[in-house]
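Structure ticket #2291
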Amino acid sequence: MSKQWVISLIGGVIIAILAGCQSRPTDRGQQYKDGQLTQPLALVNAPNARGKPVNAGDYADQVLETQYAAATLFQRNQTDFAAIQRWAQAGGDTRQLSQYGIKAYQMEGADNYGNVQFTGYYTPVVQARYTPQGEFRYPLYRMPSRGKNRRLPDRAAIYSGALSSGLAIAWTNSLMDNFMMEVQGSGYVDYGDGRPLMFFAYAGKNGHAYRSIGKVLIDRGEVAREDMSMQAIRHWADTHSEAEVRELLEQNPSFVFFKLPAL
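Resolution: structure written out below.
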């Protein structure tokens, strides 16, 4: 991976103006409508962005964490990551990118007008207990051992008890919280005993195809396409029965497993 690609991809998450990708410009969250771009990536003197990020220091720390989450990638591009970190630590002023050897590229986006959509992820915190008790009856599982040519059960089968309870590493009070944690790929667990939050990292999947429950709700007419969001899904879950929520989640046969940090 070249320096230009690494810096444009990582730095772009900060400096890009988030907007919806449509087939043509609209008034819905799109900033640029003044002419189509002729190439997918165009080198610019400075990005068209105002101000500085309020959490540049946090971003610098996250860049450094890449060495633990993706050690090979970090080692291969150490110089690039170091430049981005120095820039972020200095305040993240987009007018100063060139001073740190960082080049800015403008993406054409899906509409060719420079309106680009990025997907954002967050790290959820879920309430849990070490053993099932009361409302805490929804397990988070570690990765099962997979024998040769053995396929793991799908989500519906797992919800019905196809996995050993010995694989459970936490019991939460919300099936939807578990699912959202799967979507994000990791999360923090609060066992409610006063100890520090425990980070659960991604361990693997069951190998079944992923199906969007958001699209299921849209196709069923439960949520309008233009209103679809994570908040809309949560609101739907909060206003429907446990059985209805489970039935919806089972439409996605893919299932994610987690692992505890090495002590």
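Closing remark: The CA atoms of residues 41 and 107 lie 5 Å apart.
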